[in-house]
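INFO  loader      accepted 1 record
INFO  loader      residues=269
INFO  predictor   begin
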Amino acid sequence: MAHKVFICHASNDKQVADAACAALEAQRIPCWIAPRNILAGQEHGKAIVDALAACEIVLLIFSGHANHSPQVRREIERAVSKGKIIVPFRIEDVLPSDAMEFAIGNTHWLDALTPPLERYLSELCDTISRLIRTQALSMELVDGSSRRNVVIDRFPFVIGRSSGCDLALPQSYVSRSHATITHDGTQFVLEDAQSRHGTFVNGEQVTSRALRPGDRIQFGSLDAPQLRLGASEDRHTATGPNILSQLQGISAKHSDLESCAGFWRLPGS
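INFO  predictor   done
INFO  writer      dumping tokens
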């Protein structure tokens, strides 16, 4: 099963990271965590890069060790560059500094400063579950009188003729790997994968395009079945941080903002 959450942590915080991983997977949220998911003989750096690209959410186990770890910093910088939603889970009363502050300085966090850890893990699982559900995109595939719902809930979502694609289309003019739909943290983006016959949105050929309510997508031909985005789907395009704010009912106090140098805190932390 493809993972939805990449768990970023310093080696000193492995026990907490493993506990978070176990809690999330108990809720059927698949995770990627090193070293568990790095295969023997696999290049470590490539495994990290590929796992970050494939995830929807990055869970950062934040501590003093993580704050000063070059590896953690590189992973977070990569996640930011890929537009991933980052959920910091702070297990020590420290603030991010230098490059880490720059990377996550406008990101809401969850605090888990006092034992037992289990009570915070429940809130963490609930937050990530809601974020994943909010990111899902529902579209309709229309082929003549036939209609079926297509739920896009993992990224990149691959459309093509190959049976291994997330959405397999049998038409001969569809390339084996024709196009992808990704989520860059703020919007859903359709990208043509150098297909032979092109990808079309509302009758115009495109190579890359942010999706908007009412869009009609066709692959390989203007006579092809249409993948339609309903007019109500704009509710899914909120940014990850804004969603997290809405979910948790954040009410940051002025004193919190001053003491946290621009960071916002979740209630109950």
